[in-house]
Design a protein that fits this description.
The chain is built from 7 helices and 14 strands. With 301 residues, the chain is an alpha+beta fold. It has 2 domains: 95 residues, no CATH class; 149 residues, Jelly Rolls (Sandwich). The strands form 4 sheets. Strands 3-4-6-11-8-9 form a 6-stranded mixed beta sheet. A 4-stranded antiparallel beta sheet has the order 5-14-7-10, with no helix packed on it. Helix 2 runs antiparallel to helix 3 and helix 3 runs antiparallel to helix 4.
Length: 301
């Protein structure tokens, strides 16, 4: 087994952090595809996925709008990442990685519950104390934080933003939601080669805009918004995607709608928006299985 080397804050990582998280891109008006590539590069570095980082650098270098100074810095980083990959270097994520990793279930990146939790819960109700005991509220909120259900973040893809992040520290993730005319988006980390199953289980049917049924739709996108798979009516009117092999390491997005609310795709099957209004109204659970545990994503490559 090759030895993994842990890095401190060397000059190289300081340069890397300043380029990736502050300098690189600040002088360029990134479009959606390039913004997604830059975010993927940042994530690959935070996961010590040097092969993935090199792939993203190559894509950025291919951009005709890349300023010469940024291009030169990327070439320097590319050489450094080649050495890291050869030496099997792994470094702990820096503070700059927090916005990219929080909520996915990686050790050290799932925030603790806030102080004065009970007072905050009562204040959020707005009309006195709720009709359940304090202990019940505390346990419920602790479960929400443990599952990561509070972690909703912007994404570099407007049509898939914001997204709720799934805690997949055990190699699977589960969440609950409700959707009618809108779109619910969920983000999860995966390793190249993971074979995943996504299942929508409708738990309650409500009166919808057009229908009173459990007609869900499920869409799976990669980190740049390319549609990989979709399903409608897997089991009667409910949705499932089974045994989907994921092509690369990074973030994937699952979107849930009701019938007739579909993604608008360009010629490359990349999402640009949504069309139609969902006709049903449902509450559901979403389960994702077959994933590499979050703490291991990227570091196995």
């Amino acid at each position: 087994m090759e030895q993994l080397v842990w890095l401190g804050l060397s000059a190289g990582t300081t340069l890397l952090s300043s380029l990736l998280f502050t300098g690189l891109g600040a002088r360029v008006a990134w479009g959606q595809p390039t913004a997604a590539v830059q975010t993927n590069l940042q994530l690959a570095v935070c996961l010590s996925d040097w092969g993935g980082a090199l792939h993203q650098i190559d894509r950025l270098l291919a951009s005709p709008d890349m300023p010469p100074k940024d291009r030169a810095n990327l070439v320097v980083l590319s050489r450094q990442f080649q050495r890291y990959r050869l030496d099997r270097v792994v470094h702990p994520p820096t503070q700059a990685c927090d916005p990219l990793l929080t909520g996915f279930g990686l050790s050290g990146f799932t925030p603790l519950q806030p102080l004065n939790l009970e007072a905050a819960l009562y204040a959020s109700v707005g009309q006195g104390q709720p009709n359940v005991t304090s202990d019940q509220h505390t346990r419920r909120q602790q479960a929400v934080y443990a599952a990561g259900l509070h972690q909703i973040h912007a994404t570099p893809i407007p049509a898939l933003s914001p997204a709720q992040r799934l805690n997949t520290s055990n190699g699977s993730g589960v969440t609950a939601g409700a959707v009618s005319r809108g779109v619910n988006v969920y983000a999860f980390l995966a390793q190249a080669g993971d074979v995943v199953t996504l299942n929508v289980n409708v738990t309650r049917i409500l009166p919808g805009l057009l229908y009173h049924d459990d007609d869900s739709q499920l869409f799976l996108f990669d980190s740049e918004g390319n549609l990989l798979a979709d399903n409608d009516d897997f089991t009667r009117l409910q949705s499932q995607l089974s045994d989907i092999s994921l092509p690369s390491t990074g973030v994937y997005y699952a979107a849930i709608t009701t019938y007739n609310n579909n993604p608008l795709l360009n010629g490359d099957r990349q999402i640009s928006g949504w069309q139609g209004l969902g006709g049903s109204s449902i509450e559901y659970t979403l389960t994702v299985t077959g994933l590499t545990p979050a703490d291991q994503v990227g570091r196995l490559e």
